[in-house]
Every structure is written in structure tokens, then in C-alpha cells.
Amino acid sequence: MIQTTTTLNKISKLIKDNPDAHVYSIVGGACCSKTFSILVLLINHCLNKPDSEINIVSHQLSKARITVIKDFRYIMSDFGIYNPDKFRGGVEYTFENGSMIRFIGADRMDIGKGLRTRGWVFFNEANRLAYETYRQISSRAEKVILDYNADFESYIERRVNVLPDTAFLRVNVYDNEMAPENEIKEIESYKEQGYNPDGTIKDEYFANLYNVYGLGMV
Predict the structure, then answer these.
(1) What is the pLDDT of residues 147-179, one digit of tens each?
(2) d(CA 170, CA 8)
(3) I want to staple 167 with a disulfide (CB 3.0 to 4.6 A). Which of 21, 69, 125, 158 is the partner?
């Protein structure tokens, strides 16, 4: 059974507290469950608002099938509402109330020019998408929610998070109470190798690993 986490609560609060925002931008490190939490909220949105339309854009559809689409199936099954007959081509799911979630791979640079949406768009791992693809699609969306990893700097920090209609949130592994213990130990080892007890840096490499994968700092 899916458990509520701090990450889920924080993202939900971000949206609730910023109703006028056009973009909700969430960055995180390893095992923070940002993508999983966003999917839970979007599925709930579809269930509670008939005829909703949500497009989920990933940089490669082939990777999405083993990541975000896999999580989608798991959540829907856990909710007890997954019907494989409603999942056309494994990329477009239609709910009983007419709501729809579509998964799109942004492998082609021109995909944004032909995509029209009347609802929300979720950019998964947005920092791996070309900025022009993001711009073309986001400009036509009612609302945008995006997540990205902190492993390298991208256009999101320079061109998206700085906009007045963007609401920003950073989450980390400590916000995910369901994070595997072995992954937490690995991240904690980065801190131990990277920092002295007084907080000064002992090893810049491991200090950076901890900042990125532990704290979600770009």
C-alpha cells in the first residue's frame, strides 16, 4: 500500500499554496520520490476532475517505459483501478470519468510544435529535455509541473526558476520515509567521506556527491 511521505506532502502544499503559478518546479537528489509523488497527485487530479487531460513528457519514451510508466502502473494497481484495456498502446490511459493521461517521448526536437493540450503537462527529468522542446510545450499548457535531478546545471535554473510565475521546491532523500536503508547508508557515506565533524570540507569530491545526491543541490 502506498504510504504518504514528506515529499508528497511538500509537493501537494506547493501546488495548494501557489494557485496562480503557471510552473511548479521540483528538484531533488537520489531516492527522494519526487516523480512517484507527482504521479500520485496527477492520478488523484484525474480521478477527482472528470475529463482532465495530462501529458507526461520524458526525453525518451523507451526509458519512460521502465521508469515513470512503470511507476504509473504500480500506483494505479495499488489504488485498485488499473485496467490494461484502458491503456492504449501502453502510452495513453483513459479513466472511467473521461480523464486521460498520455506519455510522450521528446526524442524529436519538433515534437513541441505539434502538441496541443488543454490541461496539465508534467515534464519528467526536465533537465534532460531540450529547452526549445520545453518552451514550445509549456507555453501552450494550462499548468506545468516539472521535476529534475540535481546532477548538472541546466536551463531550468537560468530560464525557468527565475520567472515570477514559477513556484520552486527542493526535496531530498530525508523527505522520503520509504527510501531504502541501503541507499540512505550510501548517501550518508558520502557525507562522512566529504565533511569533517565541524562541517568543513574534507574531500571535495564526496562533499559534492552528498550535496547533489543527498541534499538535491545542483
Answers:
(1) 999 999 999 999 999 999 999 999 999 999 999
(2) 12
(3) 21
Assess contact for 214 and 175: CB atoms under 8 A: no
Grid coordinates representing 197?
565533524
The three cell numbers locating residue 11: 509537493
Q: What is the mean pLDDT of residues 86-109?
A: 92
Integer CA distances (angstroms), 206 to 28, 101, 181, 194, in order: 18, 40, 19, 4
Torsion of CA 37, 42, 45, 46, to 10 degrees: -140
Grid cell in block for residue 161: 526558476
Q: Is the dihedral of CA 154, 156, 158, 159 positive or negative?
A: positive
Cell of 86: 484502458
The model's confidence at residue 1, banded by pLDDT at 50, 70 and 90, is confident
